[in-house]
Amino acid sequence: MQTFVLVIHILLAVSMIGLILVQHGKGADAGASFGGGGAATVFGASGSGNFLTKVTAILTALFFITSISLAVFAKKQTASAYSLGPVQSTTTVPSSTKTPETSPTAPETSQ
């Protein structure tokens, strides 16, 4: 799930960059009044500002949602690593390995 959200997040970021670069700035309206507004006729009489602004706002909202989702995923992943709960030992001694016991009082027999 985290990989899917990450892929969507990257696609949204690239889409936002493209849309923002396509939009024209506020200073471009002054040039349109002198006859340079031919490209605005593709999107109708109101120009491309209204449509592109709405699409950029939607992509930005989705980008923030995926950012928050990725932060929640990262928090869940690291919460167990830094928890202060009871620590369970991962090293166990098998019960079948017993050392032979020697008694210090038993006499040794030599043959």
Characterise this structure.
The longest helix is centred in the middle third of the chain and has 31 residues, at 49-79. The model has no long low-confidence stretch (mean pLDDT 77). It is rod-shaped and about 120 Å long. Helix 1 packs antiparallel against helix 3 (49-79). With 111 residues, it is mainly alpha-helical. The termini are far apart. It has helices spanning 2-22, 28-36, 49-79. GO terms for molecular function: protein-transporting ATPase activity. Keywords: Cell membrane, Membrane, Protein transport, Translocation, Transmembrane, Transmembrane helix, Transport. InterPro entries: SecG.
Radius of gyration: 34 Å
Strand composition percent? under 5%
Question: What is the helical fraction, as a range of percent?
Answer: 40-55%
Class derived from helix and strand content: mainly alpha
Please provide the count of β strands: 0
The overall pLDDT, averaged over residues, is 77
Q: Which series of helices and strands comes N to C?
A: HHH
What spatial form do the alpha-carbon principal axes imply?
A: rod-shaped
The description of the largest β-sheet is: none
Function: Involved in protein export. Participates in an early event of protein translocation.
Pfam families: SecG
Organism: Acinetobacter larvae
InterPro entries: SecG (IPR004692)
